[in-house]
Design a protein that fits this description.
globular; 655 residues; 39% helix; mainly alpha; two-stranded antiparallel sheet
Length: 655
């Protein structure tokens, strides 16, 4: 038996790079030749849509925690001036950068002359048609400089934050905004009570990192890892086998656990009461790079965080079940976040390449699954008891079964069953150990040991007492739900921009008079969309289905329930439809598809009486804007445009 010192030293290696004989070796070159073809075949199976998959099968992870975890992974990857020893730190560098002296663009200009900056910039959203005339300060800070840019545009296109990747999707950007709001609430409260700006900034940063630490323990580690391991890791001081901090960014975490976060991403999200069915493609494009003309956000795009973190009102959405499957936009040819998508490229393939790439010796190499299992068992006996990972024969058999219908030579299939890509293994492990509700045992250890080792230091009792007096007026938030509730109480965002829906127990306001900031720009009337109309979240995926139905008659749904299954994650089929019929066009016959008479008349009556001052504007599918408006992100390809238009005109009705 190993003594405690040796076990601790061995455990330190769990998230370390591979030593000699420990590296993944089943594929010599994952980026070229046979190696790439092998991963391409695996990616095809992972990305293939399974119409028999139960769409109600979700993980136990709240949807917002997916993006909080993504935020933490990028925080680990961003080094600041405080990282003097080069160790990865969860220090909120994504909002603080190198501080107000070195990154002043991320901080508000102080009111007094000569005063140091101490508050982070917050962007003000644009009012929607029925929201307050002065938009709520709930967006990332955005700006443009048409006099300096080669092609000036009338839009706020640049994000004034230390790492623009935080604006890579709408949900991630709004998670970042929560931390900026927290810092400002504490810092401004301290200054109002007489503290100078510089010490107020430092105190607020320590307190904000303290709350961040608690949320990472309770929400990230507490949601992702297996329940039986939570006693060990979900505590004010997680019981880590590795006593020291991280020496370098763990490849096994960043290219393994962090990347299977893509498997948790939903195809559709309800953002708030106004936007209850938004597709993944649109959320990833709705940022300063891809839709600068739409920035800053209008208030109808702001998240109701009660739909992303569990506030106890039954409205929270959960992430997809963890398994060897991804949202369709991430599959081969999906084109999401890729500059030049091709049918043989996609996020799923890039994830597989990343976890199998043979790096230069100076950078280290990816440890194999059997190496990770051996390290965990040596350092923390009993941690893997009864798990899928612990039984080598079971691992090999299950992986061989999954690879059975993946085209490749039998010898390579056997080698991969013995030595699988880490991402694929963690996906299958999660399905076996927890039916996709959480990570499996190895994934849980990698997650908890990495996050736990990089946590920021807790704030002192003195700092917490100052923050309680200046801002919290009670205990410091410990979970994201606590944070969301505190920020809503503190900033009192009005209806239409609230961080969460008003809770029934909340007392009525003392006065019915509106504050100046709550003066309505337009009337509160809202013409709700007819429940008889289709809602489409992804026109490109719809176009792919239409193309398949056209070319393969056997793929066409035979009944309305089968249509709903095929359209899951793409479009909603209204309840009034009881059957489905296909009318195929002919080159020698002009088929004029007339709309339903009553529905057309109803829409015409509504639009004839509509006023832009009392009703929402007529809403076209957003992809038309993506085609015609200038932007800096990936262009829609000609194929994307063709598929989206085909999806639109095939299924569109009078609306």
């Amino acid at each position: 038996m190993q003594d405690a010192t040796e076990a601790s030293r061995t455990m330190r290696a769990i998230v370390d790079d591979a030593a000699e004989g420990e590296a993944f070796a089943a594929i010599a070159d994952p980026e070229h030749g046979e190696g790439r073809e092998t991963l391409l075949a695996i990616a095809r199976k992972i990305g293939r849509f399974d119409p028999d998959r139960d769409p109600t099968l979700t993980s136990a992870i709240p949807a917002g925690v997916t993006y909080l975890t993504q935020f933490a992974a990028h925080d680990l990857d961003l080094r600041g001036r405080e990282d003097v020893d080069g160790r990865p730190m969860l220090d909120l560098a994504l909002i603080y950068g190198d501080g107000p002296r070195h990154d002043p663009f991320a901080y508000q200009v102080p009111q007094g002359p000569g005063e140091p900056r101490h508050l982070l910039r917050i962007g003000r959203a644009r009012p929607a048609w029925n929201s307050p005339a002065w938009g709520a300060a709930r967006d990332l800070p955005r700006a443009s400089c048409p006099h300096l840019d080669a092609h000036g545009i009338e839009a706020r296109s640049e994000v004034l934050i230390p790492n623009t990747f935080s604006d890579s999707n709408l949900i991630l950007g709004q998670v970042q905004t929560l931390w900026a709001l927290l810092h400002n609430a504490v810092a401004s409260g301290l200054v109002e009570r007489g503290m100078r700006p510089e010490p107020a900034f430092e105190t607020a940063r320590r307190v904000t990192r303290h709350v961040y630490r608690s949320a990472l323990i309770n929400d990230v580690i507490g949601s992702w890892i297996m329940p039986r391991l939570r006693t060990r890791y979900v505590a004010a001081e997680p019981q880590l086998a590795a006593r020291d901090g991280l020496a370098r960014l763990p490849r096994a975490f960043m290219t393994g656990v962090a990347r299977i976060g893509h498997a948790l991403v939903r195809e559709t999200y309800a953002l708030n009461d106004q936007r209850g069915f938004e597709g993944l493609r649109s959320l990833i494009r709705h940022n300063s790079a891809c839709r600068p003309a739409d920035m800053p956000l209008t208030e109808d795009w702001l998240l109701d965080f009660g739909r992303f973190f569990d506030l106890g009102d039954g409205r929270v959405q959960h992430a997809r079940a963890i398994g060897p499957h991804l949202a369709r936009p991430f599959a081969l040819g999906g084109g999401v976040r890729l500059d030049h998508p091709t049918p043989s490229d996609g996020l799923v393939l890039r994830d597989l390449v990343a976890c199998t790439r043979a790096a230069a010796a100076a950078e280290g190499t990816m440890p194999s699954v059997r190496t990770l299992v051996a390290r965990i068992e040596a350092a923390a006996p009993g941690l893997l008891d009864g798990s899928f990972a612990q039984d080598a024969v079971r691992r090999r058999t299950r992986l061989a079964k999954w690879l059975e219908d993946v085209p490749m030579p039998a010898g390579r299939r056997a080698a991969l069953a013995e030595d699988p890509p880490l991402t694929l293994f963690l996906m299958i492990e999660a399905m076996v150990d927890s039916a996709g509700a959480h990570l499996g045992a190895v994934g849980s250890a990698l997650m908890a040991e990495t996050i736990g080792a990089a946590l920021p230091d807790p704030a002192s009792a003195e700092d917490i007492a100052l923050a309680r007096d200046a801002a919290f007026h009670g205990p410091a938030p410990e979970r994201m739900t606590d944070l969301v509730r505190f920020l809503q109480r503190h900033y009192r965002f009005p209806d239409g921009a609230r961080l969460h829906r008003a809770e029934p127990a909340s007392p009525a306001p003392a006065s019915s008079k509106r504050k100046p900031s709550e003066t309505r720009m337009l009337d509160d009337q809202n013409a709700a969309q007819s429940s008889r109309l289709f809602e489409v979240a992804d026109y490109i995926e719809l176009g792919k289905l239409v193309a398949d139905w056209t070319q393969n008659e056997a793929s066409r749904p035979k009944c309305i329930d089968e249509l709903r299954r095929q359209l899951d994650g793409i479009a909603k089929v209204p309840d009034n439809f009881k059957d489905v019929d296909f009318v195929e066009g002919r080159s020698d016959v002009l088929v004029i598809r007339l709309p339903e008479k009553d529905l057309m008349a109803e829409a015409q009556r509504e639009l004839e009486g509509a006023s832009p001052m009392t009703q929402p504007p007529y809403r076209l599918p957003k992809f038309y804007d993506d085609i015609y408006h200038r932007h800096f992100g990936p262009e829609m390809t000609s194929l994307d445009i063709f598929l989206a238009r085909m999806g639109d005109y095939t299924i569109a009705r009078c609306q």
